[in-house]
Design brief:
The complex is a heterodimer of chains A (about 240) and B (about 350). Chain A has about 240 residues and is mainly alpha-helical. Chain A has one domain. Chain A has 13 helices and no strands. In chain A, helix 2 runs parallel beside helix 7, helix 4 runs parallel beside helix 9 and helix 9 packs antiparallel against helix 11. With about 350 residues, chain B is an alpha/beta fold. Helix content of chain B is about 35%, strand content about 25%. Chain B has twelve helices and 14 strands. Classes of the chains: A mainly alpha (about 240), B alpha/beta (about 350). At the A-B interface, helix 1, helix 6 and helix 13 of A face helix 3, strand 6 and helix 4 of B.
Chain lengths: ~240, ~350
């Protein structure tokens, strides 16, 4: 039986409906962006315009925003398999013709789409506030370097990594809370590289950003393959190894 | 693992092949299982299962907790890979490659309904209709809800439904794809008597529509009431057949005689009646093992009247499926002790 986007869509729609009625998910999706737009905006408006301090401040502010695509999906994805198992819905789903790749892609897309929308909207709002209230030198500094490109490029890639780590942890875990803690922890490593770039420890350039993005994309694809291999119907249903 | 104790009934495999499927067709069965075995490491979940289920048949799978019923259902539903043996499910050989194809032709309702409690009944069914890639989704959902009499609860959140209603939603979900085989795993587990009766009525109505049902349960009265044939499993298949046939195979026919007072010499009296093969005293009278109750009863009455016994009643002993089941399970316990 071939890969079916209808089945992927069925799970995705179900997930999005479920998110909308889940106070925990709504809370996470509202609180994380709110937190990570207030701090950088205040920092930026109050920033000193001397070039060295300004570059650091902008880097830090934008780094805050990259925490959104790491934190949000990892919290949501940590629930994706172990949560279904806990509420007894995993077995009925796995009893349908759905294939593991379809199931995993659906779960990933259901976390990826809202994450991307929220992260980009928050970044847009941040740019809007900066344009309206920050010193013109700050605004031009934001657009001058590769900050915007880094933001646009790394948001989906970091989200992708966080999603696969979250689903991998969820596939192996037996407790939702442990899964959430582990998945947030596992999502952080790529952010460290971006942080070193943002804070000018690794000197930021378009070539470096594209190179790192390509590496992260490769890791995302490898992570997807690894998660697909880890996803074993029998173990998930019975809790035993073959 | 100990060898299965000898049963008083026939070889399960032989009894299967001797029985035609319910729809009368031979060879073309909804489920064909041959020497299917599943081990989890050293532990045997079930061993060398062989049986067939005809299209339109309601087949009961009975056994104590841990007998391997749920594991067998999960294996036939392609959720678990068998260790050895083979099976054909809904006309498709049970292999890893055929998993999706088989799952598209069957439905499984696990013991717990497994509904998304924050979604409405319709939203739950919409999700599964998408997973089966069904056409005319709204029509199918309406039909499934009508079948379980839940049309008026379509917009209710599943979390607000009672346990019995959730079970009905799960049954509606299992009917969405018009399955060739419907696996019901303990469908009335944890339900009150009213909800249980509702589920029984639903299963009966599905049977009348010709749906093939594979029902696992440890509620014997449920199996007796609903199933055309039953199999008793305790890791190995112990017995298979129609409930009435199993009773006859396992228990000799007998008469229960109730008297106001005991007989002076029952051995002489019953020994003189040709149709009586043996007797034993019970608190209320005697149980007589007979060749044919219809012939034996009048002869026994005549003998009792001759000695002026006060006869309260003479009836043929009734053995329930529970008696059959307990007899077999007790045998297994005894065999393990030995």
């Amino acid at each position: 039986m071939s890969f079916s986007w209808t089945r992927v869509g069925a799970i995705m729609h179900k997930e999005l409906r479920d998110y909308r009625r889940n106070r925990f998910v709504i809370g996470t999706m509202a609180a994380v962006p709110a937190l990570f737009i207030i701090l950088p905006t205040i920092q930026l408006i109050a920033a000193n315009t001397t070039s060295r301090a300004l570059s650091l401040r902008i880097g830090l502010s934008l780094l805050y925003m990259l925490v959104i695509p790491v934190t949000m999906p990892s919290v949501v994805c940590a629930y994706s398999v172990v949560g279904e198992r806990e509420q007894g819905t995993l077995e009925p789903i796995l009893s349908t013709p759905i294939q593991r790749e379809e199931f995993l892609i659906a779960k990933a897309l259901a976390a990826f789409a809202p994450t991307l929308v929220i992260a980009y909207v928050v970044f847009g709002v941040f740019l809007g506030i900066a344009a309206l209230f920050a010193h013109p030198a700050i605004v031009s500094a934001i657009y001058a370097g590769s900050h915007v490109m880094v933001q646009l490029l790394f948001t989906p890639l970091l989200a992708g990594w966080a999603i696969w780590v979250g689903i991998a942890v969820s596939t192996r875990s037996t407790d939702v809370r442990v899964a959430q803690q582990l998945s947030v922890l596992g999502s952080v490593p790529p952010l460290i590289i971006v942080a070193l770039m943002s804070l000018n420890v690794i000197s930021e350039s378009t070539e470096l950003a594209v190179g790192l993005a390509a590496a992260l994309l490769a890791f995302d694809l490898l992570a997807w393959r690894a998660v697909a291999q880890m996803f074993d119907r029998e173990r998930l249903v019975t809790g035993r190894r073959r | 693992m100990t060898a299965p104790p000898a049963s008083q009934g026939p070889n399960p495999t032989e009894s299967v092949s001797a029985l035609p499927s319910v729809d009368g067709s031979k060879g073309d069965c909804a489920l064909g299982v041959d020497q299917l075995t599943k081990h989890f490491g050293d532990r045997v979940a079930f061993d060398h299962l062989s049986f067939e289920v005809g299209y339109g048949e309601v087949f009961g799978f009975l056994g104590p907790n841990g007998a391997g019923k749920t594991t067998a259902v999960r294996t036939l539903g392609t959720l678990i890979a068998p260790t050895s043996g083979s099976a054909v499910v809904a006309g498709i050989p049970l292999t890893l490659k055929n998993g999706s194809e088989i799952r598209s032709r069957i439905s499984m309702m696990p013991e717990s309904p497994g509904l998304y409690l924050r979604l409405t009944v319709t939203e739950n069914l919409l999700c599964f209709a998408g997973l089966y890639e069904l056409d005319d989704v709204r029509k199918r959902i309406d039909r499934a809800l009508r079948a379980v009499n839940l049309q008026d609860r379509a917009r209710d959140q599943c979390g607000s439904l009672s346990k019995g209603l959730r079970q009905r939603v799960a049954l509606a979900r299992a009917l969405l794809n018009d399955p060739a085989v419907l696996f019901l795993d303990e469908p009335t587990s944890g339900l009150d008597p009213v909800a249980t009766r509702e589920v029984h009525d639903l299963i009966n109505s599905l049977r009348s529509q010709g749906v093939t049902i594979f029902l696992t349960t440890h509620r014997l009265e449920e199996a007796e009431r609903l199933c055309d044939r039953v199999a008793i499993l305790n890791t190995t298949l112990r017995l298979i057949g129609r409930p009435a046939d199993l009773r006859q195979q396992l228990f000799r026919r007998s008469l229960d005689v109730r008297l106001r007072s005991p007989l002076d010499d029952p051995g002489v009296l019953f020994g003189a009646v040709g149709e009586v093969e043996g007797w034993e005293q019970t608190p209320s009278g005697y149980t007589l093992t007979v060749t044919d109750p219809d012939l034996a009863a009048p002869a026994v009455i005549r003998a009792l009247v001759r000695v002026d016994a006060d006869v309260l009643s003479i009836v043929e002993s009734h053995h329930s499926l529970e008696d059959v089941y307990l007899e077999l399970i007790d045998e297994d316990v005894e065999a393990k002790r030995r």
